[in-house]
Amino acid sequence: MAHHRRSAPGTVNVASKLRIEHLADHPEVLPTLKEWFEAEWESYYGPNGLGDAQKDLSAYANRAGLPVGVVAFLGNELCGIAVLKAESITSHSYLCPWAAATLVRPDCRGKGVSTQLLCAVEELAKVLGYGRIYCGTNTATQLLERRGWQFIEQGEASGENVSIYEKAL
Q1: pLDDT tens digits, 120-167
Q2: Which residues of 15-39 are buried (b: 16+ CB within 10 A; e: fewer)?
Q3: Domain count, the chain
Q4: In a domain, 3, yes or no
Q5: Residues contacting 15, CB < 8 A, separation 6+
Q6: Domain of 109, in residue numbers
Q7: Among 9, 59, 83, 115, which one is least packed by beta carbons within 10 Å?
């Protein structure tokens, strides 16, 4: 008997209706993503942060290798982004590549979007010839564990503790 994962009561799983595409094919979404990054990660991308959302997002709009971003659309509506990049957690720069910069629009969360984005990033890593992929998070541990990722250790990113995971591809 097939097991179907159920969404939380009152939510709709939209994963079957999602399109995941290269960010490079959608430069029109860059201004929206810049606003999202600045709002979601204000301490880094905000006015007093060290990050430059515009610069990072422009780098992710790439197809030729790392970093490479993918975006999720529900119909014509942008609903999320994820990135495969060479470095993410500076203390662990010897590990490569990283699933990073995953962000889903608040009203699309809990509906399978981040799972589809993560699957796309895993597939990108495989296509690029990597045998393993890494992720540092303090929010997505359950998602990673459901997808077969293994916790390897605690690390630090921008002064915050993060759990570092790896997955064999």
Answers
A1: 999 999 999 999 999 999 888 999 999 999 999 998 877 778 899 999
A2: beebebebbeebeebbeebbebbbe
A3: 1
A4: no
A5: 111, 112, 113, 115, 116
A6: 15-168
A7: 9
